[in-house]
Amino acid sequence: MRLRAGLALALLLALLPLSAPRADDGGRGEGITRIKDITKLKGARENQLVGYGLVIGLPNSGDSMRNSPFTEQSLRSMLDRMGVNVQRSTLRARNVAAVVVTAELPPFAGRGSRIDVTVSALGDARSLLGGTLVITPLVGADGEVYAVAQGPVAVTGFNAAGDAESLTRGVPTAGRVPNGALVERELPDNFGTLRSLVLELRNPDYRTAVRVADAINQHMTRRFGARGAYERDYRSILLVNPAGVNPVRFLAEVGDLVVQPDAPARVVIDERTGTVVIGKDVQVSTVAVTHGNLTVRITETPVASQPNMLSNGDTVVLPTTRVEAEEKPGQLAILNGSSLQTLVGGLNQIGLKPTGIIAILQAIKTAGALQADLVVQ
User: Fold this and answer.
1) CA 2 to chain centre
2) Which DSSP letter does residue 193 get?
3) What integer pLDDT is reported at residue 370 of this predicted model?
C-alpha cells in the first residue's frame, strides 16, 4: 500500500506544470510589483544646487578673455585670493573656461558623502575635454552652501577643427564630475520622530491607492493586530507608524509588499521620432478606417540655351519643371480594439508606417472612437 502511495505521489509531481512560479521569484504574477517601486515617501525629495566656477587645464580650447570678460574677472579674483597680484597685467590665457555647476542633493545625505555634478560652459569655450574643475561652492534656493565641487571633468563629445573643416561629436561643452562634490551641510531631518508617514504614488490612480492601502492593512492586521493605512486621495496614502517600531524598519516591511498597480488607458505619441506607445487597457469602438498616401514629386532640370555662333546673344538658363503625382490605393479596414492584441493586429494588417499610424490614431480620437487619453509629445 505504501509503495502504491509513493508511486501515485511521484506521478502527481511529474504531471505538475513546468511553468509554475518558482520560490525565488516570490510567485508574482503579471503586473505585480513592490510598493517601494511605485511610491515614494512624502518630503524625502532631492534638492537642486547650483554654483559658478572655473575649469582649468584646457588645451587652448577655453574662453577668449575678450569675448568673455567674466572669465577674466573670475581668474583675477581666484589668483588674488591665492596671493598672486595680476591686477595690472593683461590675461590672454585660453586654457580657462567659466562654467555653471549643477547637482541634486539626495534626501538624507550625510555630511561628507559625495554626489555627482554637471558642468556646463558659460562662455565661448570650444571644449571642456581634459579640464579640471576648481573648488566651487554649491548653494541651494535659500542661499546656503550645501556642497563643494572639484575634480576632473568627464566629457563624452569632442571637437576637432582644421583650416578648412571642423568636426563635432556630442556636446563637448558639457560634462560630469562623478562623485565630484562633498556634502558640507545636512538638511533638517526629523524622520526618526515621525508618528505618521505619507506615501505618494509615482503614477497617481484611485484604484492603485486603494490596493496599496488594502495590502498594507492586511500586513499590519496580521503583524500588529490593527489597521494603519488610509487612502487620502488618488495620490497619497497615510500610514500610522505602530508604537515601538522604528519608521525605517516599518517602511522596509511595507515596501516589500506587492500589489498590482492600475493606470488609465492612454496612448502616447511622439511625432518627432514616430514612436507610438499604446496602454494595455486601450480600446477602440468599432470604426472603419482607410488610409492612402499621396506623393507629389517636383523635379527641376534647368537647360542652358546658347546663341548661335557669331551672334550677339547671351547664354541663358531656361527652367524645366516636371511635376508627378502618385496616389497609392487605400485599404478599408474595420478596427474593433476590444483588446490590445486586436488593436495592434488591425493596424498591422493595414500595413502602415509610424506616421500613418499616428495620423489614424489622431483621427480615431477625433471621431470619438478611441476610448483612451491621447498624449501628443
Assistant:
1) 62
2) G
3) 81
CB contact at 8 A, 358 and 274? yes
Which pLDDT score, from 0 to 100, does residue 217 have? 94
Cα dihedral 279, 283, 287, 290, rounded to 10, equals: 10
Backbone angles phi, psi at 10, to 5 degrees: -65, -40
Place of cell 500610522: 240
Q: Are 318 and 302 in contact (CB under 8 A)?
A: yes
Report the distance separating Cα 18 and Cα 14, nearest Å.
9
Domain chopping of the chain, boundaries: 47-183, 190-259, 267-301+319-376
Distance CA 106, CA 273 (A): 33
Q: Residue 109's closest CA among 80, 140, 78?
A: 140
Q: For helices 247-255 and 206-224, what crossing angle results, to 10°?
A: 120
What's the CA gap between 14 and 31, in Å, rounded? Answer: 29
Ranges in the chain, pLDDT < 70: 1-30, 160-165, 190, 192-194, 289-300, 309-311, 321-343, 345-352
Are the C-beta atoms of 229 and 220 separated by less than 8 Å?
Answer: yes
Pick the CATH number of 190-259 from 1.20.120, 3.40.630, 3.30.160, 3.30.70: 3.30.70
H or E element in which residue 374 lies: strand 373-376
Half-sphere exposure of 86 (CA within 13 A, CB side): 17
pLDDT in tens, 342-376: 667 666 666 667 777 788 888 888 888 888 888 88
